[in-house]
């Protein structure tokens, strides 16, 4: 029993070490019928100095995605920290940085998206995504990267999903190939449990600190090198033909995280955080990012 408890605490510590990202709260967002969208609608026009129901939820959203580190998410006071964080969010997403919840901000925050934060609070050797910064790729804190160029990957079994197995494997094979084409990496599929990168579908709570949230909202997340885990939310309406949530689009994005890229504020990049339709080709910004980390192929 003592040993089990010890193992559990070691696991917990390890999870905290390898997941140093502020996206722990399963905060949710989705199209117009959801509570968060309604919250945003109710906050339209609210600004600094006001106290309004729902500001705490907005604060939680901004914390989850790396725009805000201070304050309690139960605090409904729209203070200068919330205003500043909202301006950062708006600047990253190329909206007018008014610091007010306006229509464009509501629309953007209502898109399904990746569960990883946009702005990582630690100093970054390539500190993009800040107000006034040029459009560009980012890395994780400390720029973690793979120490080898020959990587294996494995499909893990998991929850049943709305897309068939052949389509899943083909989409991921194509996604791996897209990154291999512009980098020194070679990827080979394996069934070996020692695979470097693993991917699979999970529902709700699933053995990490970041439970999924049902259809819409957060679609997937992945861990920085050399962790290798990629998790997709099993509750999405995954498709292989570009409709609903295009699996290959999200796979290509999450694989970028597995290789060491953070979110980009280039609206053309595969590594931008929101899902706004099929996007299966890497942009110049994605290519510049992976080559800055590993060199050319
Ligand atoms: Zn992402
Ligand atoms: Zn996960």
From TrEMBL:
SUPFAM superfamilies: Metalloproteases ('zincins'), catalytic domain, PGBD-like. The active site is at 254. Zn(2+) 1 binds at residues 206, 208, 221, 231. Its EC number is 3.4.24.24. Residues 142-296 form the Peptidase metallopeptidase domain. Binds 2 Zn(2+) ions per subunit. It is an enzyme of class 3 (hydrolase). Residues 1-20 form the signal peptide. It comes from the Eukaryota. Keywords: Calcium, Hydrolase, Metal-binding, Metalloprotease, Protease, Signal, Zinc, Zymogen. Coiled coil: none annotated. GO terms for biological process: collagen catabolic process; extracellular matrix organization; proteolysis. Its cofactor is Zn(2+); Ca(2+). The keyword Hydrolase applies. Ca(2+) 1 binds at residue 236. GO terms for cellular component: extracellular matrix. Ca(2+) 3 binds at residues 213-214, 233, 236. Belongs to the peptidase M10A family. Matrix metalloproteinases (MMPs) subfamily. This is Metalloendoproteinase 1.
């Amino acid at each position: 029993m003592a040993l089990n408890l010890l193992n559990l605490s070691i696991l917990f510590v390890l999870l905290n070490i390898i997941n140093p990202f502020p996206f722990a709260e399963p905060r949710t967002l989705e199209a117009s019928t959801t509570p968060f969208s309604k919250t945003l609608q109710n906050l339209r026009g609210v600004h600094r100095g006001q106290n309004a129901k729902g500001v705490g939820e907005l604060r939680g959203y901004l914390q989850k995605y790396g725009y805000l580190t201070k304050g309690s998410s139960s605090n409904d006071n729209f203070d200068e920290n919330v205003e500043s964080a909202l301006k950062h969010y708006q600047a990253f997403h190329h909206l007018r940085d008014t610091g007010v919840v306006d229509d464009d901000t509501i629309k953007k925050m209502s898109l399904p998206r990746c569960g990883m934060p946009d702005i990582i609070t630690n100093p970054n050797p390539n500190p993009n995504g800040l107000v006034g910064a040029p459009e560009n790729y980012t890395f994780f804190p400390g720029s973690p990267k793979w120490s080898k160029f020959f990587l294996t990957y494995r499909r893990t079994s998991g929850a049943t999903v709305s897309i068939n197995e052949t389509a899943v494997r083909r989409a991921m094979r194509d996604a791996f190939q897209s990154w291999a084409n512009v980098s020194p990496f070679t990827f080979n599929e394996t069934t070996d449990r020692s695979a470097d990168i693993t991917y699979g579908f999970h529902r709700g709570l699933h053995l990490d600190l970041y439970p999924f949230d049902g259809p819409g909202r957060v679609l997937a997340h992945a861990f920085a090198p050399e962790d290798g885990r990629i998790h997709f939310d099993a509750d999405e309406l995954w498709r292989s033909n570009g409709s609903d949530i295009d699996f290959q689009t999200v796979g290509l994005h999450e694989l970028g995280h597995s290789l060491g890229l953070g979110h980009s504020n280039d609206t053309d990049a595969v590594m931008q955080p929101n899902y706004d339709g099929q996007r299966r080709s890497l942009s110049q910004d994605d290519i510049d990012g992976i080559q800055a980390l590993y060199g050319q192929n």
